[in-house]
Amino acid sequence: MGEEAGRALARDPKEIVARGYDAIALRYAEWAGRIDSPALEWVRDLDTRLEDRSNVLELGCGRGVPATRELARRHRVSGVDISAVQLELARHHVPEASFI
């Protein structure tokens, strides 16, 4: 019970999401790199509105690029993500930020 083809099934929705992002972290990064997104433009706009060295909490930081990296240039950033793999990548990409 609770296992299918030798693998434990996740029942908690948060665990399902975390496992999903853990499994596709590198493929997601590759896909995201090909998408023309306005996110970095929005982050830069936010950055202009913040005082230097502001404390920034980024929820759903993923692998830390590009938003966390951009914000960490001038601010103290704490990134939060549900995926342990994404957090590991974020720590690699933006060592000056802290991640939870």
What are the salient characteristics of this protein?
single chain, 100 residues, alpha/beta, three-stranded parallel sheet, 4 helices
- Radius of gyration, taken over Cα atoms and rounded to an integer in Å: 16 Å
Biggest sheet, spatial arrangement of strands: 3-4-5
Largest sheet: 3 strands, parallel
**Count of helical regions:** 4
Order of helices and strands: EEHHEHEHE
Verbal overview:
By secondary structure, the protein is of the alpha/beta class. It contains four helices and five strands; from the N terminus they run ββααβαβαβ. It has helices at residues 13-32, 39-49, 67-72, 84-93, and strands at 3-4, 7-8, 55-59, 76-80, 98-99. A three-stranded parallel sheet has the order 3-4-5. Strands 1-2 form a two-stranded antiparallel sheet. It is globular. The chain starts with a strand and ends with a strand.
Question: What's the gist of this structure?
Answer:
This protein has helices at residues 13-32, 39-49, 67-72, 84-93, and strands at residues 3-4, 7-8, 55-59, 76-80, 98-99. It is an alpha/beta fold and 100 residues long.
